[in-house]
Amino acid sequence: MSKKLLTPEQKRLDTDLWIILMVTLAVFLTYVLTGNQLMSYVRDSSVSVIPRLLLNAAVQFGVAGLGITIVMIIRKEKFSKFGLVKENALASIIGAVACFIPYICYLIISRQFRGYQPFRIMIANDVLKSGFPVNVAGMLLIALVWGFFEGFNYAVISDKINGRYPSKNRWLDAGAITCAIICILFHPFTISLMGIIEMITTFIAIYGMLQVKNRTGNAWGCVFAFCFIWNAF
Asked: What is the pTM of this model?
């Protein structure tokens, strides 16, 4: 579509997506350039867990959350606009979990399953050992950044992409397809048989989760999946 034929809403969505893209890439590239030093600091158990967690959370939120937060503040958009509502919440959660079953099977078959622990991030065990109230506050921050915002981030981006590039075929979902590809690219993968299987099952999980979100009108399944599946296995 020619630029001059874009509707005001499509132009607004273009701007929103560019803001999200530029913020995400800026933080991600910063991490790529300084990742070794940052992660060495985060892993250093001789340092208090609080600054290590805050640094780790800042990087994570910058990649998956800051962009959509800036846009939602600028546009004065509510969480409910993107599916954080009560209606169909259970159906959304059940549907999202079902989409992650192939990925869970892949983890088990590839012997990557190390037990079930929600919010299994690099620093989680140090946070749990830190004592009350730091451990409680720390786990709440982890749940917010690695659970809520990581899952909700995909829901918002998918909605905005679909608004900008609508499709009459519900299976050719530009938002879900793009977000699934982004998820694969932003996480380590290998070009091998198991690596290809991992990419396929990851694509099914993210694409399916967002298809469920679109059909139920509810994004709690996305949040649940990242709280209790993606970062738990």
From this structure: 0.91
Could you identify the residue written with the tokens 């829901």?
155
Residue 90's identity, in one-letter code, is L
DSSP 8-state class, residue 78: -
pLDDT in tens, 76-124: 999 999 999 999 999 999 999 999 999 999 999 998 888 888 888 889 9
CA distances from 109 to 80, 97, 102, 180 (A): 38, 18, 10, 22
Find the DSSP H helices in 121-192: 124-128, 134-142, 150-164, 174-185
Residue with tokens 């694409």: 207
Is the separation of the CB atoms in 225 and 96 below 8 Å? Answer: yes
Structure tokens at 205: 């999980």
Tens digit of each residue's pLDDT (9 = 90 or more) over 152-197: 999 999 999 999 999 888 899 999 999 999 999 887 777 889 989 9
CA distance 180 to 121: 21
Measured at the CA of 132, the angle between CA 126 and CA 137, to 5 degrees, comes to: 75
